[in-house]
Every structure is written in structure tokens, then in C-alpha cells.
Design a protein that fits this description.
The protein is an alpha+beta fold. It folds into two domains: about 5-200 and about 380, 2-Layer Sandwich (Ribosomal Protein S5, domain 2), CATH 3.30.230.10; about 205-375, GHMP kinase, C-terminal domain (Alpha-Beta Plaits), CATH 3.30.70. The protein has helices spanning about 5-15, 80, 95-105, 130-145, 155-165, 170-180, 220-240, 250-255, 260-285, 295-310, 315-325, 350-365, and strands spanning about 20-30, 40-45, 45-60, 65-70, 75, 110-120, 185-190, 195-200, 205-215, 330-335, 340-345, 370-375, 380. The relative contact order is 0.17. The structure holds adenosine-5'-diphosphate and magnesium ion. The site of magnesium ion (MG) has 3 residues, from loops. Pathway: Carbohydrate metabolism; galactose metabolism. It is found in: Cytoplasm. One of its GO terms (biological process) is galactose metabolic process.
Amino acid sequence: MNVADRATAGFRQRYGVEPAGRWAAPGRVNLIGEHTDYNDGFVLPFALPLRTVVAAAPAPDGRWTVWSELDDEPVEFGAAEADEPGRVDGWAAYVAGVVWALRADGHDVPGARLAVASDVPVGSGLSSSAAIESAVLAALVDLGGLDLPAERWPRLAQRAENDYVGAPTGIMDQSAVIRGRAGHALFLDCRTEEVEQIPFDLDGARLAVLVVDSRAPHRHADGEYAARRRGCEHAATALGVTALRDVPVAGLDAALARLGDDETRRRVRHVVTENQRVLDTVALLRAGRVRDTGPLLTASHVSMRDDFEITVPEIDTAVEAALSAGAYGARMTGGGFGGCVLALVDAGAADAVAAAVTEAYAERGFTAPGTLTVLPSSGVTRLG
Ligand code: ADP
Ligand code: MG
């Protein structure tokens, strides 16, 4: 059964009636621009063909009941629980958080019954969290006829995750999941929050992106993330700029000369050069030179591995194996210390590259990776 049918079947079985509609939101992957978001910089994510589907109908009692195929037990809550971050916990907090964010924004959110099914792997860095938030948001906006233009959805979904769930994420995930467009990547300026659709016609170029789920255990990811973030903030202060975004590549050497220790210099070099790589990738894509972006992807990986030091052996193995098997470029995607790798490959070679990565993993005794070939797909939609 496909994911939309599973959501419908789950709804029928749970509630004994037909849903009023179904809403689908994709996972996302970041093509390039890592650890640039909190430095006021640039990112370039795109929406995946894997989706989370929410089947929903209004509930006359004004309460919310949500069931997910990931859990046997449905969770029910009312306005009192939704209005107090922390009252609903576990996975249903992502749903209660959306109700909370909408109510806090002044909307009269309709009570609803919801059933969730998903093809987005959970906790792999492909943003199953933004997918469930965005699908629920779209469902509630439609069911309630709420006056909320789509430009405002990413911020509200982010608030649900930051302030209700308590996960400190940036605006990238929700922007990609909500605003993504088939055949395009989303160029996002994290300082101004301006977005631009950039043609990313893999299909036309007979290319594909292979996504490898490294299955590496997340080792100290939270602490290391916080440390990188602090390091960047201190470096910006030392350089007298608001954020590392304000250091241009042309001024990098001069900036590095003003920094005391080698580790800080390498961290700064990653962020400054990574921002430039995003801009260079956008320029190549605008010119239709999709394949030529490969070396920028690989340079991004080398920078994360050697300067920002956020990769792990499984991730480096996947990148090296993909490149050896003929990928045009490959890099870790996401915050690091695990998560996924993406590789730009000939569409016809995707299976062979995936097999080469799986073999390299086996040789080193790593848990077998997950592999998946993707094209940039559309953001949140109503299915009917
Ligand atoms: P990622 O976004 O990379 O997949 P996160 O840790 O940010 O990882 O979000 C994963 C969490 O989101 C899950 O642990 C769960 O609480 C919630 N979630 C995501 N998708 C679903 C789903 N289909 N059903 C229930 N909860 C989900
Ligand atoms: Mg997430």
C-alpha cells in the first residue's frame, strides 16, 4: 500500500469514518551549505519524493486526536494541553506544537482527527519532523479555512518545533518542505529569509542524486553542534562582524590572520568558503551546468571533514566509495556526526554507485547503509 492509502486506511480503521482530505509533505535534503544557517549565510535544500501523509477530518468536540502508524496508541489533547508547551510529549508534541503555534498566532484552530503515515525515515536527517509538522499545518489551515498565506507557514512550523517540542532548529527544513518545487532547489538566505527557486533539472541532465543513510550512531552530535555554533559566534565577535556571513571570501586571509588559534581559523574557513560554494552552485545551476556542481559538493565535504571536523568514518567511507565509483561529487548533508551523504551521479549509474558504497561498508564491518535515488520534488500539497 502506498503512503497515502496507508494514511486513509489508518484513518478509517481508527475512527470508523472517511477522512475529509489528505495532505502530504515531503522530507528534504540539503544540496549544499552546511553550518551556514546560524552564521546568517546561505543554504540550498530541495524537497524529496518521500512524503508524510496526514488524513484528517474535523472533530465536533473541538479536541485533537492523532494516530501514527509508528505507534499503536493514538494521542488525544485539548486546548489546555496545546496551550502549554511540554504538556503533550513524545512524537505527538510535533502535532500539538502546530496547534499551539497556530493558536498563539491568533487562529481559531478546528478540532480534528488525524492519521499519519510516512515514507520519510525518522531521525535520519531527512527532516521527518518538518514533514509531519507541515502536513498537519496544511490540514488544519484547510479544515479551518484559516487565513494564513503560505509564506508564513515555515515560521509557524519552526516555532512548533523550537518552542513546543523544544528542538532548536533553523528555518531551512520547514522552508524546503513547504516551499520546495519539483525540478528546483530552494536558495535560502538565512539572514533575510528571502527564498528563490533555482532550476535543478536532474532529470533533463540524465543525472540523479543518490542519498545514502549512513546508519552511523549519532556520537555526541548535540554537544558538538553547540560547540561549533559557539565557536562561530566567538570568532564573529573577535572579527568585529555580526555573523561570519559578513566575512567575504576575498577578505578571508586577512580575517584568518587576526585569529589566534588554528582550530578557530579552520572553523571560520569552513563557513566562509561554504557560503561561497553555495553561491557558486547557484550560479552553475542557473547556467544549466548541473554536472559541474560536483566538485563543489566534494569540496564542501573536504571542508567539513578537515576544517569543521564534523564527519565520522561511515560518512567519509560513503563519500570516498561514491567518488571512486564515478560520482561527479559527494558530500555529507546535515549537521554531521552521522546522518546522510548525497552523491551526484549519472541516472543510469545510481545503482552501481549504491552497490559500491554498500560493499565498502561491508569491507569495514559497518552496519549496511540505506540507499535511495531522488529527484527534487514538490513541497506540501493537498491530495484530495
Ligand atoms: P529527522 O527530522 O531528521 O527525521 P528529528 O529527530 O528532527 O529527525 O525528528 C524525528 C521525530 O519526529 C520522531 O522521533 C518523531 O517524534 C517525530 N516524527 C516524525 N515523523 C513522524 C511520524 N510519521 N509519526 C510520528 N512521529 C513522527
Ligand atoms: Mg528534524
